[in-house]
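#structure-requests
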Amino acid sequence: MYHTIFISAVVMLLTTVNTAQAQPLRPLQARQGERVEALKVTFFTKQLELSPDEAKAFWPLFDEYSKTVVKHRKEKKVSMEQIAERGIENLTDDELNELIDSRIRQAEENIQARTTFFREVRKVLPPRKVIKFYKAEEQFNKMLLKKAAEMRESKIE
């Protein structure tokens, strides 16, 4: 039952985003991000069966971890845009090596952030719920990717 309600909420979210085309892009992206975050909180809280105390301890840890991931995602986007604008053939070896070093640093920082996150989460959640998080994270990401693909397909048609 919850799964059906949640999927319906995601569909409504994506439909709303699709019909709000006349609004400026930045506010739309902000609202879309806020909605995804709200869905994420609901989804993970339900999937992990977090008590109020567990949620109070879990979410600040998750938020800190998410900030690192988002920061690196933005840095990666900037790097990829730089390559696209100038063309890979127009970048010097030094510039390309800087990009490679940046990507390696980002990957190392992501691994460190994830390791820190799980070490801290293990202190506030029972092991069963930590393992449930892995599965819930995968399910949530697959669901978002599927809905995004469906939206792209519906725009093409």
